[in-house]
Amino acid sequence: MIITLCYLxxxxxxxxxSVAFDKLRKKYSPWKIPTPAFLGFSLIGASIGILLxxxxxxxxxxxxxxxxxxxxxxxxxxxxxxxxxxxxxx
Length: 90
Description:
The chain is 83% helix and 0% strand. The chain is mainly alpha-helical. The protein has one domain (2-88). α1 crosses α2 and α2 crosses α3. The termini are close together. The mean pLDDT is 91.
């Protein structure tokens, strides 16, 4: 349980920093992190960090894939956690 919690904290911090990094790079360089990379990162657990980064840094808010996809992934992850913990009786 503690390993899972540490993983989620770390992956969400990385998600938050990746959005901040992408926003910073957008101002100074043509290179950017592609939207599918953010969605993939959300799928492995960084959806809270990415969503928070999108709102804090006002970045990728005009991308439909991000504004719809990341919250949907987060909802699916929350449902999965409640389902798994309900089945495990923890």
